[in-house]
C-alpha cells in the first residue's frame, strides 16, 4: 500500500513538473515593485513576455490623467536595440525608410522598415545618441533580421531591452514634473529632441516624444536606476496630480492622436499568415517616410513599382461615425451593401467629443470613393445584440490636435 502511494506521488510530481510552463510568471520590469504597490484592478496583460498593466486603478480616470495631469506608463518591455559603429548610419539608411543622414545627434525620428517586397516589418523610433550610436525601439523583435542585414557593415548590434528601463511621462503637467524633479535644461527640448541628464550617480536620457499626441517625454535609464528614477518623478509630481496608468488609457490617447499600432492596425510582414494581409507603407499612412532620394533601401524597388502601376490594394483612413457607440472591429460598407473594409480601433473621444475610428479599406474605397460609407455595429442591449448601420465619413488625422504638444517653451501647467 505504501509503495503504491509513493508511486502515485511520484507520478503526480512528474506530471506537475511537466506542467510548470503553464504556471510560469511573466517577467517583471525594473519598475514592477512600484507598479505592483499601486495596482488596484489586478488587470494585467502580456507585453512581449512582461507582466504589464492594462489598467492600474480606473481606465477612465487614467485616460483623463493623460489629458489633464501627468501620467506615467512603463515602456520597459518595448524592444530596444543599440546600433553603433563606423557604418551605423549607412546601415540604418539601408534598412529603414527615412534618410538617417538628416537625423542629427540629439534627435529622434519616427520610421519604419520593410522586407524586399516593400511590406512593412515594423515601425518604431530611432534615437541618435551620438554620431555613430543609435537606439532603435520597436514593437516586435528583429535581432536575427538586423544581424543578417548588417553583413558587410562595420557595425555592432545588441538588444538592450532588459538592460534599459523606460518610462513615458505624458500630459499637460509632464514638463512641470520634470522641472520640479530638478532636470535643469529640460525646457530646452523641442519635439523629437533628446538629451542626457544626471541621475543618482548615472545618466538618464530624456526625449520629448510619446504616443499620446500630448505634451510628453520618454525617459531611458539603466535598469539599476529605475526605482530611484520613479521615486524622483513621483515625489516631484505629488502636487501636479501624477498617476500611473495602463495600456487601455494610453490606447485611447494614441487613437485620438491618429497613431497606429503594429499587429493591431496592420499586420507586420513577419506575422502575416496570408499573402493578402501584408501592407506597404503607403497602405497604412506611412508613405510620408519614404525618401527615394537617399539611394537604395529595403523594399525601394517594390515600392516604386507599386506606385507606378497603381497596384496597392488598401488605404488606412480616419473615420468619424455618427452617434456615440464605438465601432470597434466593425465591417465598413459602401451604400450599406458592399463590404469594403474593417475598423481596427474605435472609441468615443472625450476630448474631441466625436465617435472616431481607424479603418483599413480596399481601394478605390477610401481613396477615390469616399462617400456613402457605413459601419455595421452590434451593440448589446439587455442580453440581446442589436445590429445598427451607422454613417461614417473620412476625416483627417489626428482627431485631436493639442497646441501644448509642440509649444516652445513647454507650458508650466
Which characteristics define this entry?
single chain; 413 residues; alpha+beta; Gyrase A, domain 2; Alpha-Beta Plaits; Elongation Factor Tu (Ef-tu), domain 3; 3 domains; 6-stranded mixed β-sheet; 6-stranded antiparallel β-barrel; 9 helices; 19 strands
Description:
- A six-stranded mixed beta sheet has the order 10-11-12-9-3-13, sandwiched between helices.
- The mean pLDDT is 95.
- With 413 residues, the chain is an alpha+beta fold.
- The protein folds into three domains: 142 residues, Gyrase A, domain 2; 81 residues, Alpha-Beta Plaits (2-Layer Sandwich), CATH 3.30.70; 121 residues, Aminomethyltransferase beta-barrel domains (Elongation Factor Tu (Ef-tu), domain 3, Beta Barrel).
Brief sketch in words of this structure:
This protein has 413 residues and is α+β, with helices and mostly antiparallel strands. It has 9 helices and 19 strands. The chain has 3 domains: 32-78 and 162-256, 2-Layer Sandwich (Gyrase A, domain 2); 79-159, 2-Layer Sandwich (Alpha-Beta Plaits); 275-395, Aminomethyltransferase beta-barrel domains (Elongation Factor Tu (Ef-tu), domain 3), CATH 2.40.30.110.
